[in-house]
Amino acid sequence: MTQTEREPLQLGIFMPNCSNAYSISTYRTGPDEWPYASNKRIALAAEAAGFDFLFPVSRWRGFGGKTNYLGLSQETMTWAAALLAVTTRLKVYSTVHVPVFHPLVAAKMGATLDHIGQGRWGINIVSGWSREEFGMMGIELLPHDQRYAKTAAFIEILKGLWTEEPGTFDYDSPWYRITGGYVNPQPVCKPHPPIVNAGVSEDVKELVARLCDWAFIGQSSIEETKGLTQDFKVRADRYQRRVRCAGYPFVLWRETEKEAEDEKRRILDQMDPVATENWARGLGIGSGSFDHFTLEMFALGAGALPVIGTAEQVALKLKRLYELGLDGVLMCFLSYYDDTVRFGREIVPLLRQLGVVGEAGDRTEVEEPR
């Protein structure tokens, strides 16, 4: 399929449902936007600006340091319910940790959420990597390979409960036994809501290729994108499946490139070293997906790919990511509401001109609050 035949780039926001999202720094240009009222305001602005989906991080405790990074957080099933109820077009995802949820419970909650949103809900399945978070629950993390085998079972159960006749689904594994599994009503989205997994380790790639609809990848450079996206898509072809790939950029733009780079430097100059070390150590030990990242890369958007410059430079970089195989971008910002509105006004038209996103459709201008 050529680029001209491809679906447009999907625009997503990595929402600030946790405190200090997502740069691990004390530098801020406005109030923290983790409260629900702020998330609702951002969601409505995103819908008006033409974004396609919203995505949360799921955390159960903070990472210490001056910021206690992500220490205040909204649980993502309930968060998604609230946002689905006030939006009409956006897809809204929840993030579920396999060690915490039973798959039948997650399937029932997910079906309910999909009915609230009339087919607009999706789920990000996380195998779990934070020993501190799960340790406080008395949950021991499995070895890396077993963790992903359990995650595969979790996803297979979700799909079975969502697609087979209620009361007929059976499943037996070392981790779960389902007898006469019953979820009714089943989701509105057919055959089932989109299922996502994040990471680029070998275990993740194989899991996604076989069972998931989206791979959310963390790349250390723009040009690394092609190899990662091709790897996922070739693996999916082996299973006669299609997998889409979304990247995770930290998007920052100003009138001049120098102004944007100066803002980036202010973020890094005020890095929270304790929280950054805790975050990097946890990811490095637990996930296997960020082996080549530096401490500064973790501090800027918690490992997001820097996409920085003028509006025109940012648009061209996003176009390049699209050309290299990304089907979506999961963007984080410095000032979420303001940047969501600005992105719709200043960058979406450029992306449209470049042929990266579709026509304006139902995009409308966002009124500034009085």
Strand line-up in the sheet with most strands: 1-2-3-4-7-8-9-12
Given the helix and strand composition, which structural class is it? alpha/beta
Output the CATH class name.
Answer: Alpha Beta
Task: Characterize the main sheet.
Answer: 8 strands, parallel, barrel
Distance from N terminus to C terminus (CA atoms, Å) equals 47 Å
Mean pLDDT: 90
Number of self-contained structural domains = 1
What's the count of strands?
Answer: 12
CATH topology assignment: TIM Barrel
Helix content: 40-55%
> Count of helical segments?
12
The CATH superfamily is identified as Luciferase-like domain
Q: Residue ranges: pLDDT <50 for 5 or more in a row?
A: 285-292, 360-370
Order of helices and strands: EHEHEHEHHEEEHEHEEHHHEHEH
Shape: globular
Strand content: 15-25%
Radius of gyration: 20 Å
CATH architecture: Alpha-Beta Barrel
Description of the structure:
By secondary structure, the protein is of the alpha/beta class. The protein has 12 helices and 12 strands. It has one domain: Luciferase-like domain (TIM Barrel), CATH 3.20.20. The protein has helices spanning 36-49, 76-86, 103-116, 131-135, 144-163, 202-211, 225-238, 257-269, 273-286, 295-299, 311-323, 336-353; strands at residues 10-14, 53-55, 91-97, 121-126, 169-172, 177-181, 195-198, 214-217, 244-247, 249-253, 305-309, 328-331. It starts with 9 loop residues before the first strand and ends in a 17-residue tail after the last helix.
